[in-house]
Structures are given as C-alpha cells and as structure tokens.
Fold this sequence. Notes:
It is a single chain. It is globular and about 35 Å long. The protein has one domain: Alpha-Beta Complex (Nucleoside Triphosphate Pyrophosphohydrolase). A hairpin with a 2-residue loop joins strand 2 (12-13) and strand 3 (16-22). The protein is of the alpha+beta class. The strands form two sheets. Strands 1, 5, 6, 7 and 9 form a five-stranded mixed sheet that branches. Strands 2, 3, 4 and 8 form a four-stranded antiparallel sheet that branches. It has helices at 39-51, 92-95, 103-110, 116-119, and strands at residues 5-10, 12-13, 16-22, 25-27, 30-32, 56-57, 70-77, 87-91, 123-127.
Amino acid sequence: MYDKMYVRGILIRNNKILLEKINGVYQLPGGVVIDNEFLKEALIRNFYVKYGLHITVRRGRVYDLLQIPLEYIYFVKTDDDMLDPNLKWISIDQFFNIPFYQEQLKQKMLEHFPSYDEMEDVIFIENTN
C-alpha cells in the first residue's frame, strides 16, 4: 500500500491547459487523497478547497509510469472562473517547453494534444517521487 496517494486534474479550455505553478515549476492542479476517500471525491474536494473551483470529473485510458507515490490523474471540466493566483492557463504550444514536475507524464499527455476529443475521457495513472 502507498503512504500517500494524490489526484490531479487535466482541464483544457480554448486550446490551453490549466496548470499550477509552484517554485517556478508547473504541475497539474489537485492534491492528496485522504484515507478511504474515493478518488473522484478527493479531486472534487481538492479543486474546491484549494482553488475555489467546482468541477465535474471524466475518465478513460490509463498510463502507469511505475514510480512512487501513486498519483491518479483525471480529465475534468468547470464553468467557474479561475481566481487562484497560482493557477495559469498555458497554451498547448507553450506546454511543450515549460518546466514540468514530471517530464514522463508530460510526454504521455503530449501524445493526446491538442485534440480535445481524444482528451475528453482520458485517465492517467502516474507514480511519481
């Protein structure tokens, strides 16, 4: 069993992806899963508590990058406005070149960009340090 599990969301709008910038490095927004919390509920909670966003969660294909701790990554949607100053809209073109906390995950994500239809129901399962 893992000591910690994380859940993160991929949110794409107008050919841009929503990312959280921490210490000059970008990552997908989300957070920790608490005890026996369901993954989707954890993601909804993290987006609301951390960023003030109400989201709906999608699911689909799975990728496992075979590292620890385990991170589940879902495609999400929202109609809310972004208020958190750590959240940034990054164009898909810029995404290729930004510093990202998990390059292996970024490469897997880029296999599906920029097609919104392909990204619509994608789940990534990621294990990171």
